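Recall the central idea of this unit: under ordinary conditions, the amino acid sequence of a chain determines the structure it adopts. In this exercise we apply that idea directly, starting from the sequence alone.
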Amino acid sequence: MADYERLRERHLAEFSALVPEHLERLRWPVERVREERERRLRALLVAARERSPWHGRRLAAIDPATATEADLTRIPPMTKDDMMADLDGIFADPRLSRRLVEAHVDTLVDDAYLIRCRRARMPAPDLTAVGAAFGRAAHVLLDDPPYVFDDTLSIRLPDDDVLRAVNLLGPDGRLVVTREDPRAQWRGTFVGRARFVEDFVAQRLAKGVDQYVILGAGLDTFAQRRPEAAARLRIFEVDEQGTQRWKEARLRDLQLPIPPQLRFVPVDFESGDSWVDLIAKAGFDVTRASVVASTGVTQYISRDALVATMRAAAELAPGTTFICTFILPVALIDPGERDLRAATEERSAGRGCPWISFYAPDEMLRLARAAGFDDVCHVSASEFNARYFAARPDGLRAASGEHLVTATRTDRVVGTKS
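Accordingly, the structure predicted from this sequence is:
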C-alpha cells in the first residue's frame, strides 16, 4: 500500500503541475489553437515518416515542414486490410512485429479464434450472436415444457472452434449448459423477445404483410424453423458480410434448407452502406409494407446510428412496423439483477463489443415518433412476463433491464429531428 500511495501522490503532483498550463490554453485565441494543432500535426508527420516505412511511403508527397490541416484530405485512410497486409511496415516500434503479435493473440481464448479467421480471410460469426443462440437453446435444455420459444437449431450452426472460443464446448465435445452461466440466466429475455417478434410477424402475415427484414440477423433460423410461414414471406437477413458468408456455408454443411424466398444481404456498416438500398437490390418491394426487426442490437450502437436506422425504416411503405429491443440504464432495473448486468457488460466489453447506449422507455418512444412513426408502443419486461411466463411454475422470467418498442407508420408522417 505504501508503494501505491507514493505512486498515487506522484501522479497527482504531475497532474497538478500541468493544470496551470492547461488553464492558460483555455484562454488561447482561435488562431493560436490552429497554430498549435498544425505544429502537432507536423511533428506527427515527421515521426510517422521516420519511424514507419509504410507511412513513409504513403506520406512521401507531403512536406511536413509546410503541412496544414488541409493536407489531411490528401492522405488516404488506413483500412483493416492495409493493416493486415503490411503490419510490420506500419509498426513504428522496431521491437514489434506481426509474428510477435500473432504469437501473443494465439494465447488468448475468445479473441484468438476471430483473429485467426481475420488473418486467413475466413468468414466468422459475431460471438455475441452465438451467446444469444445459446440463451435460446438453454431454455429448452434447462427448463421443463411448455417452452416459451423452442430453438435448439440456431446453436447447431457454430462449429467446435466457435463454441470453444466462447467457452461452450466441453472436453467431451458436447455443449456446456449450466444455470450459473450468465448467458443462460438471460434465457428468459432471449426467448421472450424472440417469441414476441415471431408472433408479431405471424400476425402481420395474416393481414397480408409478407416482407420480413431482420437487421443484425446473426444466427437467426426463422426460415428453417418455420417453413410454413417462411414459404409465404420474403425474408431479408441483413448482417456483416463475414457473418453472412459463414452462415450460408454452415447451413449448407449441415444440409439445412435455404428457401428461395430467403435473401442474405451483406452490409458493410463501417462504410455507411444503406441497408434499405441493399435489400431493395435483393428483391425487397419498397412499395409494400413490411416488418423490420432489430433485437439485441441497440446497446452496441450509438444513438445517432439508432436514429438513422429508425428514420430509414420510417421512410418505407405505410404499414411498415419497426421492432427493436433496448437496454435500460442500470438505475432503472431491479436491484437484484445488477450483478448479472455488470457481469454481462464486462464479458461483452472483453470481447470487443461494449454496451455503449442505454435508453429510458420515454426516450425510446420519443426517438421513434421523431423518426416518423405515428403508432408507437412500449412493451416492458413486465408485459413479457405477464404474456409468456405467468403460468410457469419454475419461476423463469424475462430480466427487467431489456424492453422493446414497436413503431408503425400508418401514413406519411414527416420525421423531425430529435
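The domain at 184-408 is CATH 3.40.50.150 (Rossmann fold).
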